[in-house]
Amino acid sequence: MPSFSSYKNPSLAADLVVFGYQQGILSILLLNRNTEPFKDQWVLPGAFLLMEERLRDTCARVLKTKLGMDDLYLEQLCTYDEPNRDPRGRAIAVAHYALVNPARFAITAGTMANDVKWFNVKELPGLGFDHDLIAADALKSLQHKILHYPVGFELLNDLFTMPELHALYECILDISIDRRNFRRKILDAGYIISTGKKREGLHNRHPDLYEFNKELKSIHLSF
Amino acid sequence: MPSFSSYKNPSLAADLVVFGYQQGILSILLLNRNTEPFKDQWVLPGAFLLMEERLRDTCARVLKTKLGMDDLYLEQLCTYDEPNRDPRGRAIAVAHYALVNPARFAITAGTMANDVKWFNVKELPGLGFDHDLIAADALKSLQHKILHYPVGFELLNDLFTMPELHALYECILDISIDRRNFRRKILDAGYIISTGKKREGLHNRHPDLYEFNKELKSIHLSF
DNA sequence: ACAAAAGTGTTGTTTTTACACCCATGG
DNA sequence: CCATGGGTGTAAAAACAACACTTTTGT
């Protein structure tokens, strides 16, 4: 059987848009590069695919070694192949996005970066490569995903309140949603289960605590 | 600036799910391979990416040289990277789908294939590589796309009737839709424009001819 | 005049939206 | 007992689904 050895192939990388939600803000994790090209500019984390590796393993490797993160929700987004997107040569990127509850991890800069930082998705700096485009596409994709898959599960704590889930949806979709109609739609969808407990220690009425319905695979919401 | 020359990279291919709609049937174009691997089996058309080429150019090249087709609607679908998907070695495929009105082209087998044939999407043979999976994913994606983008434009003639558009939607979504409610939704969406003309030569009432509203970029339909 | 298929209209139901109201908590 | 925020209910509007009726054509 013939093999591919005669072909010359572009480099192949997995790039990651890591979304985190904390204090009512949706953020993306960016690295500040300490090598050319785009030295001292902010970019998405990523790595080149190894021959024996699957793309999601490449992503997991980046999350683990560059960011100290484990076991995140991961979704393939799109493949970016503009020939001049990397000044070092032809490089094709398969973009993914990951969802993380930042409270669970303390991030630290790896060897390739000066710094690692969360940026509010509404206040992103100009990014190196074509990462502005990738980040924008990822946000659109997440906004769509949240209507069809219980994404809150990945971004909130195991127990959470209705106002917390409500704020998450308003933040990600960047719209305002009537809290009472929101409650009804979420409950009708069977999205979450009441635990009977309440969140204590707040300065007014203690909201009910819910957990996600793990039986549920897909949902349909519209706002 | 460093380059990538030290990395060894997998082969990168563009694979194509070419959808055609004719006589009320949605079909996919398949090739019968005349070389190993998967000799004499049906597979999706595809080609390896050349270094100076963009993925959509690879697709266009396949459509032109293997199938004699030009200027088709093309959409990137997903990237398939299972390490053993190609027995010749590590090969990653970026799948795309194309939409074509088969009436416009006479297909002919290229040098790589014994035969080229349209297959009803509901009666696909077992395919080589992981192309069963790719074809199934492409159909799902098309079913979603048709609700948000005026896809009929690519699959029908420039002038078409409401019953023709109705049949297309029923076929692609694989559901039955009340023709009167369908008409109302399509017209309310501003999807199409009445031309005042009528389709002649039928054995009963001559239906109105419409054309697509080219101003329209995205739509929202639900059935 | 009839059958077949296409255009038009109506009605009841469900879903969505926009609110009003009451309850619990801390100060 | 008041301000704040959270839980519950309701009525109007919009969207949807199911269906009847009329019109045009070829035979």
Percent helix among the residues of chain A? Answer: 10-25%
Q: What general outline of chain A do the C-alpha atoms trace?
A: elongated
Largest interface: A-B, 31 and 32 residues
Main β-sheet description of chain A: 7 strands, mixed
CATH superfamily of the largest domain in chain A: Nucleoside Triphosphate Pyrophosphohydrolase
Query: Taking all residues together, what is the mean pLDDT of chain A?
Result: 93
* Rg calculated over all Cα atoms of chain A: 20 Å
Low-confidence stretches of chain A: none
- CATH-derived topology of the largest domain in chain A: Nucleoside Triphosphate Pyrophosphohydrolase
CATH architecture of the largest domain in chain A: Alpha-Beta Complex
The number of domains of chain A: 2
> From the helix content, strand content and strand pairing of chain A, which structural class follows?
alpha+beta
What string, H for helix and E for strand, traces the elements of chain A in order?
EEEEHEEEHHEHHEE
Oligomeric state of this protein: homodimer
Strand-residue proportion of chain A: 25-35%
- Figure out the total of helices of chain A: 5
N-to-C terminal Cα separation of chain A, in Å? 54 Å
Instruction: Using the coordinates above, name the CATH class of the largest domain in chain A.
Output: Alpha Beta
Give a written overview of the molecule.
Chain A is α+β, with helices and mostly antiparallel strands. Chain A has two domains: 135 residues, Nucleoside Triphosphate Pyrophosphohydrolase; 61 residues, Arc Repressor Mutant, subunit A. Helix content of chain A is 24%, strand content 30%. Chain A has five helices and ten strands, in the order ββββαβββααβααββ. In chain A, strands 1, 2, 3, 4, 5, 6 and 7 form a seven-stranded mixed beta sheet that branches. In chain A, strand 1 and strand 2 form a beta hairpin. Chain A is elongated and about 60 Å long. The mean pLDDT of chain A is 93. At the A-B interface, strand 5 and strand 6 of A face strand 5 and strand 6 of B. Chain B binds a DNA duplex (27 and 27 nucleotides) through helix 5. Chains A, B: InterPro entries: NUDIX_hydrolase-like_dom_sf (IPR015797), NUDIX_hydrolase_dom (IPR000086), WH-like_DNA-bd_sf (IPR036388), WH_DNA-bd_sf (IPR036390), WHD_NrtR (IPR054105). Chains A, B: It comes from Chitinophaga silvisoli. Chains A, B: One of its GO terms (molecular function) is hydrolase activity. Chains A, B: Keywords: Hydrolase. Chains A, B: This is NUDIX hydrolase.
